[in-house]
Amino acid sequence: MTATGEAAAPTATTTTTTATTMEEVEGTPDPAFVDVDQGLTLACVAFLCILLVAMIIRCAKVIVDPYSAIPTSTWEEQLLED
DSSP character for 12? Predict the structure, then answer.
């Protein structure tokens, strides 16, 4: 309040400081990089997806031709005793 009883008008420096602070907060861009936790999670998920695709392909090959997956050296003739 002034001596005449009127409220003092805000100064230009106060308004400028507030405006500058608001511009910095509103104008802050999102970071263009991925943080460590999110990157590690994405790497693990990608690795699991690759492993899943490899297992699907291997299982499909075994289903199509099951005898090719077994080495012939392990085949034994069954002896039948009469």
Answer: H
The pLDDT value recorded for residue 60 is: 94
Residue with tokens 């009883």: 5
* Domain assignment present for 8: no
80 in a domain, yes or no?
Answer: no
Q: Residue 36: which of 27, 48, 44 has the closest Cα?
A: 44
Tell me the C-alpha distance between 16 and 24, whole Å: 12
Tokens (6 digits) for 6: 């009127």
pTM of the model: 0.47
Note whether residue 79 is domain-resident: no
The answer to the question of residue 58 being in a domain is yes
CA distance 55 to 23: 53
